[in-house]
Amino acid sequence: MSNDVGLRSERGPILLAVMVATGVVAIDSTIISTAVPAIVDDLGGFAQFPWLFSVYLLTQSVTVPVYAKLADTIGRKRVILFGIAVFLVASVLCALAWDMPSLIAFRALQGVGAGSILPITITIVGDIYTLEERARTQGYIGAVWAVAAVAGPALGGVFAMADFWRGIFVINIPLCAVAFWLLMRDYHESLERRRHRIDYAGAALLTAALTLLLLGVLEGGNAWGWVSPASFGIFGAGLALLLVFVLVERRAAEPVLPLWVMGRPLLRATNLVGLMVGAALIGLTAFVPSYLVVGLGVSPLVGGLALATLTIGWPAASAVSARLYLRIGFRATSLIGAALVVLGTVLLALLGPFPSIWGVAAVSLVIGLGFGFSAVPTLVAAQASVGWQERGVVTGANMFARSIGQAVGAAVLGAVANAVIANLGGDETDPGTMILASTAVFAGAAIMAVLLFVAALMMPRDRPVAERLGSAGAPEPA
How many angstroms separate the CA atoms of 468 and 476, rounded? Predict the structure, then answer.
């Protein structure tokens, strides 16, 4: 194994730049939840505040495939610098928002920037480190998420208590500036100089189709009924555009989302794993804090920190899994992780009627460990199966599948919660009602965890990476 790994190595400055860029998205994903009450108190618009999350998820999700293809076409550096710049400008605008609609609009722009950052940072790591080396570098990236899991909710709570919720966006400004500067200074890539035919039609069709479909999933049952003209119209238009997109991609010289991404058995299985990871994850991150806050009467900060064990366990397991798949292979490692997610979600569903902060924290840690052992090996396996010019698309497809899983999971589990609450009288502030609704959601997350295990089973059997490295005499591309 090469010793040229770490922050003090030759590639250390690039690794540091990737860590800071990852930190921008990692902190942003956890900091806003604890500040929502303060935002609503200042700007009003309680009925609109869920859009702060859904519109960000929507714009982030639909742009990932486009950024991923551009990264394979014009290079990683241009794409990620553009994304960081957009995220920085959007953060400034969010801090200056004057009402809830303006804040929602600027959050949408933030999502456009975030859509490039996470998939491209993961792609860069896959470019500059071999499979063997990633067993060590994963610990550095995982540490960023572990710190963000605690720092995000804590900072959000501090800003809220200081009556300065705008600080949750101001803090992004120095982080974006440092990440931009480090990448500009230290990251250099060699590009094949040839003329590319950018698939503008495919990009526009895919973005429009996914926007309509995700909008229908996120708002169905909320803004309009599932069985209503609006719902049928949105889903129908989205599916029609998606069909046109497939026809266009079959003829495109350089399609924005090549159809082979779902045609290869390994990529199909790893994308399905990503889909179910997102679906199961949203059931926990969206409902555990409310379950504890309403059911037990704890503060939002305490509720968020109880869930933080999930996002601490995830990076911890990611670092270990990178060493494990070297010994036992990608599929076996992913199955171990999926089994832990099943175990944890089943325990959470059983724990549901008996809310306990320590119980939720312990079970969330098990689930986080499971996500770390399943999500990372499947993504690395997908990256390792292709070359440089396809790695961005493959990484983007996996991240996109996870985002779609979150959107679908939010809609399905949200519908389950709303049905239970309606049957119990419709009072979501009643502790007993919220406990039973959350228990039903956790049971739904357990079903999705079982589907995650099935998706991991679909991965082709593979030899341990260390064995393949030894027989080949040199590392495979990562």
Answer: 8
Sign of torsion over alpha carbons 347, 353, 355, 356: negative
CA end-to-end distance (rounded Å), the chain: 14
Judgement on whether residues 453 and 365 belong to the same structural domain of the protein: yes
**Which of 45, 50, 145 has the alpha carbon at shortest distance from 99?**
45
Same domain, 240 and 270: no
Residues 283 and 390 in one domain: yes
Is residue 193 one of the residues assigned to a domain? no
Taking alpha carbons only, the member of 383, 389, 122, 385 closest to residue 254 is 389
What amino acid occupies position 104?
I
Annotate 115-129 with DSSP letters as a single string.
HHHHHHHHHHHHHHS
Q: How is 245-302 classified by DSSP, letter by letter?
A: HHHHHHH-SS-SS-GGGGTSHHHHHHHHHHHHHHHHHHHHHTTHHHHHHHHH---HHH
Cβ contacts of 402 within 8 Å, gap of 6 or more: 274, 275, 277, 278, 375
Question: Considering 253, 276, 296, which residue would you say is the last residue of a domain?
Answer: 253
Pair (166, 241) in one structural domain: no
Per-residue pLDDT tens digits for 310-368: 878 887 888 788 778 888 888 999 999 999 999 999 999 999 888 888 999 999 999 99
Owning domain of residue 283: 263-473
Residues 105 and 54 in one domain: yes
DSSP tag of 476: P
pTM of the model: 0.76
**CA–CA gap between residue 19 and residue 142 (Å, rounded):** 9
Question: What are the pLDDT digits (tens) for 202-257?
Answer: 778 878 887 888 778 767 766 777 778 888 899 899 899 989 988 887 887 777 77
Q: How high does pLDDT run on average in the chain? A: 82
Predicted pLDDT of residue 109? 94
Domains contained in the chain, number: 3
Residues 200, 206: Cα–Cα separation, whole Å = 10
| 454-471: pLDDT as tens digits | 999 999 887 765 555 554
The phi, psi pair for 89, rounded to 5°, reads -60, -45
Domain membership of residue 20 (yes or no) is yes
Residues 214 and 318 in one domain: no
CATH (domain of 132): 1.20.1250.20
